[in-house]
Amino acid sequence: MPTENRYEMLWDCSRCETPKLLGLSHRNCPSCGSPQDPTTRYFPKDEDKVAVDDHPFVGADKACGGCDAPNAQTAQFCVGCGASLEGAGPVIQRDVQSDQSGAFAADTSKAATAEQRAKRTAAHEEKTAPVAPSKSGGSGLVLGGLAGGLTLLILLAMCAGIGVMLWKKEAAVAVTGHTWSREIAVEAFTAVADSAWKEAVPVGARNVSCAQAERSTTKVPDGQDCHNERKDNGDGTFTEQQKCDPKFKDQPVYDQKCAYTQDRWVAARAAKAAGSALAPAPAWPTANIGATEREGARSEKYTVTFTESAAPDGRVLTCDVAESEWLGLAVGSRWKAPVGVLSSSIDCSALQPAG
Ligand SMILES: [Zn+2]
Ligand SMILES: [Zn+2]
Question: Model's pTM, two decimal places?
Answer without folding.
Answer: 0.52
